[in-house]
Amino acid sequence: MINVVLLGFGNLNLNLCRAFIDAENVEIKQIYNRNPIKLETPFKSIPFTEDLSKLMEADVYIIGIPDDDISGFSESLPIQNRLVVHTSGAMEMDQLAHRNRKGVLYPLQTFSKHRKVDFKNIPICIEAENKTDLEMLEKLGNSISENTIEISTSKRARLHLAAVFVNNFVNYLYQIGDEILTKEALSFDLLKPLIFETASKIEYLSPAEAQTGPARRKDQKTIDKHLQMLQNSPNSEFYELFTKALRQK
Amino acid sequence: MINVVLLGFGNLNLNLCRAFIDAENVEIKQIYNRNPIKLETPFKSIPFTEDLSKLMEADVYIIGIPDDDISGFSESLPIQNRLVVHTSGAMEMDQLAHRNRKGVLYPLQTFSKHRKVDFKNIPICIEAENKTDLEMLEKLGNSISENTIEISTSKRARLHLAAVFVNNFVNYLYQIGDEILTKEALSFDLLKPLIFETASKIEYLSPAEAQTGPARRKDQKTIDKHLQMLQNSPNSEFYELFTKALRQK
């Protein structure tokens, strides 16, 4: 049995909590949050504290708070020689306070409050200073996912960068699509089947193989029409940059 | 019963053919293609020709060829006063030859040869010169989809533009993600659960609500690290443009 204390209860730790509850060999000993929160079913029975001096003993302490606060927060923990991990893609493991054993447990996924995700396929990227801790994190990762992998701070940073492109930036393109349709009083729903199929295609084709469109086909007439429709729109910059890149490929 | 002749047999008409075969009130009278093709099951029994002078009579002729060729090809058809439609998002209906009745049947989706798509949820955008033809196209659309809508040439052009953003450009971001990971000898598979979840999120959140990431949070430290990793990469231009736009929102 691995005993876990969750430090912070934002979208990420909330979703980890949901997954650990269903895991056989994990016990959530305690949830800490800076501000009081009302724990609802199925979390009701988990001990909660807003007071760091009342932290319980556990095998792993999992920090799930904004990146910029991780370092300072880890310094403020009144514990020693315990395994303290953060869950950030961008943050170095070494940003954690040295008085505890450091580690990282980074689930490569986007989390929402109101949506329970299935951890089974989510890559859990782990890192630790020593072998025993790494094995513990591996066990913890395996308790919720079929894809736990050791990834160094430097590789994790690149992975996180790639994630920004395929998640944050992709979502921004959805926003642009929404904007274009709203101007025409057309529903964004019209684009959803296309959006799902675009994401599904890479299951059996590489992104390079799946690439289509006017720029890929060098269809200058359509490109010119599109640029004309985008006149005076900041979105024309995106159109031009993608078109240039796709032409050069 | 609606009789259909398919003109051209690329990914789009191939997939329409698959759908029409399963439809109750549609009969595919004939497939024309410029070059000979071997029709395999379940298309074996459909008459095929490479000779335009041998076109059969039908209620609707559906052109599925590259945009640039549509106009000239429709001029070359040795038929008159028939309903001839193209399937392009970007092309005006009026680009079709005037000697036939003009129309458009544009399924808003991306098609591949080796993947059978479910038309049920795909928006079928229709347009015609007269009411009777529009009703015929509506019946035809409804035979395969639950979402047939009348869309003018001008709105269809905007819809197609939006589709380029959420499909072609999104897929290019997948390529960038792939590139970043390949350099680190990491598998693109790691990003797939994130990519699917990003697409799935918009089912219950608007793209604006679903937006996350360092630029949205104005997390300058992470942005600076990312830009440093992208030094000397053409992808830094994308990173800067998205970051600027997300900051301004």
Kindly describe this structure.
- Two copies of one chain form a homodimer.
- Chain A is α/β, with parallel strands linked by helices and 249 residues long.
- Chain A has eight helices and eight strands, in the order βαβββαβββαβααααα.
- In chain A, strands 3-2-1-4-5-6-7-8 form an eight-stranded mixed sheet, with helices on one face.
- In chain A, α1 (11-22) links the parallel β1 (2-7) and β2 (26-32).
- The mean pLDDT of chain A is 96.
- At the A-B interface, α4, α5, α6, α7 and α8 of A face α4, α5, α6, α7 and α8 of B.
List the defining traits of the structure above.
homodimer, 249 residues, alpha/beta, Rossmann fold, N-(1-d-carboxylethyl)-l-norvaline Dehydrogenase, domain 2, 41% helix
> What is the CATH architecture descriptor of the largest domain in chain A?
3-Layer(aba) Sandwich
The major β-sheet of chain A equals: 8 strands, mixed
CATH topology of the largest domain in chain A: Rossmann fold
Measured between the Cα atoms of the first and last residue of chain A, the distance is 52 Å
Largest interface: A-B, 88 and 88 residues
